[in-house]
Each structure stands twice: as C-alpha cells, then as structure tokens.
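Hello,

I think I submitted the D-malate job twice by accident. Can you confirm which output corresponds to this input? Input:
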Amino acid sequence: VRVDVHFAPAVVTAADMHGRVVVVIDVLRASTTMAVALHNGARNIIPCESSDEVVVRAKSFERRDVLLAGERRMVAIPGFDLGNSPREMTPAVVGGKTILLTTTNGTGALLATQGAREVVVASYVNFSAVLSMLRAATRGDADIAIICAGKDRTFALEDATCAGHFVRGIKRRRDSVVLGDGAQAALLLDRRYAQDLGSLFNDAEHARALANAGFGDDLQVCAAVDSCPVIPIYADRQVVRLGSERER
Ligand code: MLT
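Support: Only one job matched these inputs. Its output is below.
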C-alpha cells in the first residue's frame, strides 16, 4: 500500500489518481465548509466550476430546495444565498437543502478527480472519521492519493500540514505502508504544527488573508478537530455523507 501527497492540483495527473482512494483537502475553507454543512443536515453539495454553473444548475431544482453558495477572493458571490464560511452552514439554514457551491480552489480540486476509485473530502473537523475510512481502505490494499487544494493552484501550508496529519494516522502501526516523498514532507509539517493549529494559522498566508478580510472567526471553526464526524464522499457529481447514499 502506498500513500502519496500532492501539494497542488496543478501537478496532479489522472495517473496519480487512477484506481486510488483520493482525499481532497482544503482546510481554509471549502473542505471544512462541506463537512460542516453535511454534519448540520445538508442533503448534498454539488461542486461547480463557476458562478454561472451554479445559476444554471439551480434552475433544475425547486428554489426552496437549493442554496446558491460560493466565494471569489473569499467574499460571497453577489446575489448568492451564502458565501463559503463554515459559520453560515447552520442546521436552520442548510437542513435538508442541496448546496450548489463554487470556490476558488476547493471545488475545482474536487472536480478534477476523475478516475479515482473513491473520493473523500477531508479537513481537521472530520479528521478521525475520514481517517477510519482510509485505514479500512488500506487494510483492503487500496493506495491513497491525498490532494491539497492549495492556493491559486500552488502550495498552501495548512493543506499540506493537514495532509501530514492523515499520513501519520494512516501509517500508525502499519510498517508496510510506503510513503512517497510528498507524504514524507507532509509528515514533517505535521510534526511541526499538530499540537498548535493556532501557530499553523498564524503562519499560513491564506489564514492571515481570511483574518484580514474579516473571517478570523472561521479559523477557530476550521481548527476544531473532529467537531464534525462525517465522511463526505464525492461521487456522481455530488458530495454526500457516507451512509446517506440511499437519499440520492
Ligand atoms: C477556496 O476554495 O479557494 C477556499 O475555500 C477559499 C476560501 O477561503 O473561501
């Protein structure tokens, strides 16, 4: 069994994902927002490339059943119901709804996962739940590719560090698991920051940008390890909680 970490979607090829369990991480904030929304009762999330796609897709739903959500430059898209803040995804707002979501990096990384055997959306808020699924997958000999959504298609410190946390968990008491160089590097970052996500968010550029843009409170939500124990699976162009597939 092999685990690879890819620090930016721009360098990931179809071959890197083929037949693997793929983990998409966008700690700040798309992965966190999706996990929070599903934990709080959203029916499903449909990732979209663009705000135009959100608007077009919304037309095939009853208006009361969908929420149009997304950001550009961190700020909610004009005319949409929601931005990309996990704090907006309350049970009262998202319960029973389909969320059409477009974000700068996270949704694009998800949409680029063709060929994967299974795709899961991961962050710190659903760490242990996703880890248990990944450990089960490796017991069944599945290779894993962790894809960091990154920042403008390049490296983002918080995603790489979270990837390292998953690598550590997958590797624990499993000497036979082989780590690629990206996974080894991610482990080093996890060693530096695992006990202090506050310091991770002090150092990470996108965390500082969010704080400067008035989203500082989101960082606490994003650092709340295991607060949303859901396993969000992306298949058939939508993200649903593992176990809720029958609702599709
Ligand atoms: C993204 O997908 O780029 C992020 O989630 C941006 C954000 O912080 O909203």
